[in-house]
Structures are given as structure tokens and as C-alpha cells.
Amino acid sequence: MKRIETSLPGVCIVEPQVFGDHRGYFMETYNRKAFEEIGIPHTFVQDNQSFSAQKGTLRGIHFQNAPFAQAKLVRVTRGAVMDVAVDLRKGSPTYKRWVAVELSAENKRMLFIPRGFGHGFKTLTEDVEFCYKVDNLYSKACDRGIRYNDPSIGVDWGMIDEKLLSQKDTTSPLLEESDCNFVYGEI
Q1: Could you give the maximum distance between any two Cα atoms of the chain, in Å?
Q2: How confident is the model at residue 22 (pLDDT cuts 50, 70, 90)?
Q3: How many C-beta atoms lie closer than 10 Å to residue 169's C-beta?
Q4: Residue 36 class from Cβ within 10 Å (0-12 exposed, 13-18 middle, 19+ buried)?
Q5: Count helices and strands in the chain by DSSP H and E runs
Q6: Is the CA virtual torsion 42, 46, 47, 53 positive or negative?
Q7: In this structure, are residues 141 and 100 in contact, taking their beta carbons and an 8 Å threshold?
Q8: Is the pLDDT of residue 26 over 90?
């Protein structure tokens, strides 16, 4: 495994070692010891998968409030996405900053997103399968979202077709109106 830092401390790209031959390839997508060695000592407790049929589908910006905040390890097994992490920790030197990384079945990259960050993605192809591991169980009571087009954050999603957004994503509050409870140094 190889760790590649992004402009947001803690958010990193993980490149697995891929072994290929004339038959195809093999790779480990998760190995606890290997992840500990690259500074990701989290224990993941739940795997999730989503499917998006249409190119341009946007999901996010999602997170779970503490005490059920989640770190995520995300990857694409079919298609490609622009994956986005946003620092939502009040008092952080990078508060409200975001980073975007292309994840695809072809490049096999993963993105690690620590607790205290919001997450979203926009599909760059049709028929996208998106997988993610989380280090805390889902909590409906703590499930939250920030509006994808919050001007105080300013994620550049490119062209957005609002017909490809969920009701949750079109009605989520702006960050300043939300009850996001992340504080730098406490998560």
C-alpha cells in the first residue's frame, strides 16, 4: 500500500499494489497491518455499496455527527467519480476547505476520509459502483448532510443536473444553518 497526502491533512489517497498478468489482476483492498503501517490504524465495522446509473449523479455532502462520526475508506469498483472531502471541524486551519480526487475502477485508488469531514461524489461515467468502509455503525439519529452547493464551501462540481439529486441532497441545510458538531482536536 502506498499513502499519498492531499492538501487536507489526514485525507489521503491509498494506492494498492496491483499484481497483473495475462489473466487479469489481483490486489488487496484492505489489510489491517498494511493500513496501520501507512498511518491508518482504524478498525472498520461496516461495508456499504451504492450504485448510480446515470453520469452526473451527485451524492453528498454527507456525514454523521458525533458520537457516531465515521472515518471512511472509499473506492470505485465500476466506472469513475470525482470524490470530495470537506473539512467540517470548527477551529481547524483547513475549516471549509475541500479536496477532490478522481477514483475509478481503472486507477484502483482509494480515498481515506477521517472523522470530522463531509463526503460526497459526482459520477463521471454511467453505471458506477461505489464501495466504502466505515469505522462506526450507521446512526439514523446522527445522519446529516450539508447542501452540495453551499457557497461558503464552494465545491466546484461542474455542471449539475438537479434531477439527479436526492431530496436529502437538495434540502440539506447550509453549513452555517446545520447542527454539525465537529470541533478540531475533539474528533
Answers
A1: 54
A2: very high
A3: 20
A4: exposed
A5: 2, 13
A6: negative
A7: no
A8: yes
Burial class (CB in 10 A: 0-12, 13-18, 19+), 63: buried
At which residue does the C-alpha cell 470530495 appear? 84
Side-by-side strand order, sheet with 128-134? 2-5, 12-15, 110-113, 72-78, 128-134, 46-52
Q: Which residues are catalytic?
A: 62, 132
Mean pLDDT of 118-127: 98
- R_g of the chain computed on alpha carbons: 16
Q: Which residue has the cell 472523522?
A: 115
- pLDDT band for 111, please (50, 70, 90 cuts): very high
Which of the 8 DSSP states describes residue 40?
-
- Is pTM beyond 0.85? Reply is yes
Instruction: Report, as an integer, the average pLDDT of 34-46.
Output: 97
User: Phi/psi of residue 162, each to 5°?
Assistant: -60, -15
Other CB atoms within 10 A of residue 35 CB: 20
**Residue matched to cell numbers 475533539:** 186
Q: Report the C-alpha gap between 105 and 114 in whole angstroms.
A: 22
